[in-house]
Design goal:
Elements (H helix, E strand, L loop, with lengths): L15 H10 L4 E4 L9 E9 L2 E8 L2 E3 L1 H8 L4 E2 L2 H10 L16 E4 L7 E5 L5 E6 H8 L3 E3 L2 E3 L13 H13 L7 H4 L7 H11 L5 H9 L2 H12 L13 H9 L1 H16 L13 H18 L8 H10 L2 H9 L1 H13 L5 H9 L3 H11 L4 H8 L12 H15 L12 H7 L3 H13 L1 H14 L1
Parallel strand pairs: 2-7, 3-6, 6-9
Antiparallel strand pairs: 1-8, 2-3, 2-5, 4-10, 7-8
Length: 469
């Protein structure tokens, strides 16, 4: 029999438990470094689920979405994703960083999507970062042993995201709401979603944001009439991120004039007012990074990137910052509009860690958070730049009107995901996107490092906003 591992073994090798298991099963494999562009149909995704009867290992190809409803029909069991801390303890005990798609690694029964066997070669995570096991279909079948086949994946090719037709968003959102509420009456979005009119503070801030003649006196008067907002502005001004050494802030006006400035205050105040508008919704904490923490990190990075852009390409700094603060506002709206189904979305995200949220939301609801968020921004008369930023933030090729805003959001969220901040896998950053923004890779990495060095201050700012809600 041939050697189990290729000559790359001395560079990067599977954990000892994986090597021993494969030798015991007499299954030859080769190791391969994980690289972009490897066929998703050949990549085997493993996920551990459970019910009252115990755990089940489920295997399916990465070009599919694991449909939990269909899986439960096939298995005849009400399976749900295993608790992350329990999985983490199991992986740590065996010296693994991820769950390999090897049925013998657990004592649990195994289900696999039979379309895996359509591939001549399969690629399995080796239990250490960036290393895959290359196994022929015949040897993979040996590994499956007594595992049971089924069809419970949804091919991603069948899930069509609306990336280019924002004019259809209203119809698609209304249809999704009808599907989940049994309504058949066409209504305007704000009424259909049963979201009450914006609070007076939020309305006044939006009007100021659109008024080119607005000044510091105007925003000061608005902030001072809202005690919670006033306290928050003073906290921001006193935080290490903004306050200079020995600098003391005694009033809202002091905070705006001497420390924060008009643009920063009006954008932070607006994001807080909109978030607070959904006051019955606490952060479900289903994301790896809490909502407001992710918003503040993204906004801070976008601000830094904007300042590096050449003047001809540079967008308005304040609006760019606000785009970052509000980029994931559709997440809050999803939880507010579809509360019975939001948990289902979160469960599918946990069961499909290889997928961005768009495919999951499109499959389950027929719309995405970006569609909902951008439509609501338009309904609230927010600037077109913000509407565009939210709607096209996941399209790296978007080059239409106000393209700098969604391009900056795409760049920022994927840079942060690459450093473990965010809830989806990072997507590639095309050279064309950097060219449109007039940025070099070295500049981008420098801006990211600078933001991460301010981690403590950014966390404090995010915590203050969260508590103020």
């Amino acid at each position: 029999m041939s050697e189990c591992f290729s000559p790359q073994e001395h560079v990067l090798t599977p954990p000892l438990i994986i090597q021993q298991l494969l030798r015991k099963l007499a299954v030859p494999v080769r190791t391969r470094i994980e690289e972009p562009g490897q066929p998703a149909a050949q990549r085997v995704q493993a996920v551990l689920l459970e019910d009252s009867a115990g755990a089940v290992l489920v295997l399916y190809p990465r070009n599919q979405l694991l449909d939990l409803k269909r899986l439960n029909e096939v298995s005849g069991r009400p399976l749900s994703i295993i608790k992350p801390d329990r999985l983490s303890r199991m992986l740590t005990r065996h010296g693994l960083s991820s769950l390999p798609a090897l049925p013998a690694i657990t004592s649990s029964p195994c289900l696999y999507d039979e379309r895996l066997l359509e591939q001549p070669v399969l690629l399995i995570e080796a239990g250490v970062p960036n290393l895959l096991l290359d196994i022929s279909r015949e040897h993979f079948q040996l590994l499956l042993g007594k595992a049971k086949p089924g069809l419970f994946g949804q091919p991603l090719s069948n899930i069509r995201l609306n990336l280019t037709r924002p004019t259809d968003d209203g119809t698609e959102i209304d249809q999704a709401v009808q599907n989940f509420t049994a309504r058949r009456i066409q209504q305007r979005l704000g009424e259909t979603m049963e979201i009450p009119p914006l609070a007076q503070t939020a309305q006044r801030i939006i009007k100021l944001r659109a008024d080119p003649e607005a000044n510091i006196d105007d925003i000061t008067s608005v902030v001072e009439t809202d005690p919670a907002l006033a306290a928050q502005v003073i906290r921001w001004a006193a935080s290490p991120l903004y306050a200079g050494p020995g600098q003391k802030v005694r009033s809202v006006e002091d905070a705006i004039i001497r420390v924060l400035g008009f643009d920063l205050v009006i954008n932070l105040a607006l994001s807080l007012a909109l978030g607070r508008h959904l006051n019955q919704l606490s952060d479900p904490k289903q994301q790896r990074t809490p909502y407001w923490q992710q918003a503040i990190y993204t906004a801070a990075l976008i601000e830094g990137l904007t300042r590096l852009m050449p003047l001809p390409q540079r967008p308005e700094t304040g609006l760019a910052y606000l785009s970052g603060l509000l980029h994931n506002f559709g997440y809050l709206l999803l939880a507010h509009i579809f509360p019975p189904h939001f948990a289902m979305i979160c469960q599918h995200q946990e069961a499909n860690p290889h997928l961005a949220h768009g495919h999951i939301e499109q499959h389950l609801l027929g719309i995405t958070r970006e569609q909902i968020g951008s439509w609501m921004m338009r309904d609230w008369a927010m600037p077109d730049e913000i509407v565009t930023a939210l709607r096209f933030q996941h399209d790296p090729d978007y080059a239409g009107p106000h393209c700098a805003y969604p391009n900056l959001v795409y760049l920022a969220i994927n840079l942060l995901r690459g450093r473990g901040i965010g809830s989806s896998p990072p997507q590639p950053i095309p050279d064309g996107l950097l060219q449109r923004l007039g940025l070099e890779k070295s500049q981008v990495e420098h801006a990211l490092d600078k933001v991460l060095k301010a981690e403590a201050a950014l966390r404090e700012l995010a915590n203050n906003i969260s508590q103020a809600r």
